[in-house]
Design goal:
By secondary structure, this protein is an alpha+beta fold. It is built from 3 helices and 10 strands, in the order ααββββββαββββ.
């Protein structure tokens, strides 16, 4: 093309094309955003359960490696989770002393979101939360993993207060620890022993 024809070609978008593009993007956003925002609690819940399973699996591996019992300790007041290993030392009452261990790939001092409220925590069929509901202040609840690679029976019922549906306080989640695979199975409602 010569210089005369190149100057007469108009490039760019017209106002109507821009308005139509913005309207189309608005319609797509109206469809996608509600669907995506409804999935955020689900993804956060899956991440929480995945981290919980990672901590339990790490304790299971450390228990088998060291041949010492480990315990997974939940501090309900601070919403923290940690692994403790039994040492050879004993306290004045003759009970073995447990010390904290740190997992390399898990944030030390893992704190779960305040939206997750532990309603029940069954260890060997006893609801530790319910047992301490009246009387003394309950801080720590734990279950053991023994050197044979088995865990105590544990069921944790959690209320996800951010994922409230149809006037409910939140979504009920039941986590049942498989004592053989040492991994939590997830249920959509509370579980009982």
């Amino acid at each position: 093309m010569n210089g005369f024809m190149r100057n007469n070609i108009v490039s760019g978008f017209s106002l109507i094309e821009i308005i139509l593009s913005i309207a189309l993007l608005g319609i797509i956003a109206m469809i996608v955003v509600p669907n995506f925002s409804g999935r955020v609690p689900l993804y956060q819940r899956k991440e929480f359960i995945s981290t919980l399973n990672a901590v339990v699996r790490r304790a299971w591996v450390k228990t088998i490696e060291s041949a010492h019992p480990h315990k997974i300790v939940f501090n309900l007041n601070q919403r923290t989770l940690k692994i403790q290993e039994r040492t050879q030392q004993q306290d004045a009452a003759g009970k073995f002393i447990f010390k904290d261990i740190h997992a390399q790939y898990i944030k030390s001092g893992f704190v779960w979101d305040e939206r997750y409220k532990i309603e029940n925590f069954y260890v060997e069929g006893v609801d530790e939360v319910g047992r301490h509901a009246t009387g003394s202040q309950l801080e720590d609840i734990w279950f053991f993993i023994v050197p044979e690679g088995l865990a105590q029976e544990a069921i944790i019922n959690i209320l996800d207060t951010q994922d409230a549906t149809d006037g409910n306080e939140g979504r009920q989640i039941g986590l049942v620890l498989n004592p053989f695979s040492v991994e939590f199975e997830v249920y959509d409602d509370y579980q009982r022993p």
